[in-house]
Each structure stands twice: as structure tokens, then as C-alpha cells.
Amino acid sequence: MLGPPRRGRRVAFVTDTAPCASLAPLLAGADVGFVEGMFLPEHREEAASKKHLSVDQSAQAAAAAGVERLVLVHLSPRYEGAEVRELAAEAARHHGRAEVARDGQRLEVPLPP
After folding, report:
1. How many angstroms separate the CA atoms of 70 and 68, rounded?
2. CB 90, CB 41: distance < 8 Å
3. pTM score
4. CB contact at 8 A, 51 and 44
5. How remote is the C-alpha of 68 from its chain's centroid?
6. Phi/psi at 44 (nearest 5 deg)?
7. End-to-end CA distance of the chain
8. pLDDT 10s digit of each residue in the chain, 113 long?
9. Of 10, 27, 26, which Cα lies nearest the Cα of 111?
10. Contact in structure between 59 and 12 (CB atoms under 8 Å)
């Protein structure tokens, strides 16, 4: 016997993009959004020239689209240690459930109620 229908999980994965109109519909209502956080805001000009998002742009887009949990991926390899923590802190200023992905990390995406 089948139970009543329920909404499944929605996962979005967004990398290698500058801000664009397609970002909002891709992220809309995602339970988890894996979004690039390539650069700190002070490197936004470089991000734009390389067609990437700064971490604040990623977090703002995820928050505006209703992403439940934001996981930052595809960070510039220039950032280490304290700078990675700075990326996480900047994202958290714009999205309440933002975090930086870790190598080998596993995430549980529970079914919505």
C-alpha cells in the first residue's frame, strides 16, 4: 500500500558562473544548494572578469531563492585557513545556514515534513 504523496528533496549545484538570470530558478526552494564561493567580496572585480561569483553574491542569491542550507564549494585555491573562515563568515552574514564544504564531507538531506 502506498502512502500519501509528499515532496521529495531538491538539491541545486551551481558553479562556474557569474551572476545571471538563471541563478534564481536553479536555486529556487532547494533544500541544499551547493554553490561556488570562489572569491571574497574584495576580489569581486576579479570574480567578474573570470565569470565567477563572490561569496556574498552566492549567499545573497541562495537566501533570495529560499535555499534552506547553503554549502559553499569551488573556492579559489588562494584561500587557506583564516581566509576560508572569512569566506564562511561572509556567507553567514547573508544566509543563516551557510557553511564551507570540507573534503570528504557527507551531508544528510532529510525528507521534508
Report:
1. 7
2. yes
3. 0.91
4. no
5. 10
6. -60, -35
7. 20
8. 788 888 889 999 999 999 999 999 999 999 999 999 999 999 999 999 999 999 999 999 999 999 999 999 999 999 999 999 999 999 999 999 999 999 999 999 988 77
9. 10
10. no
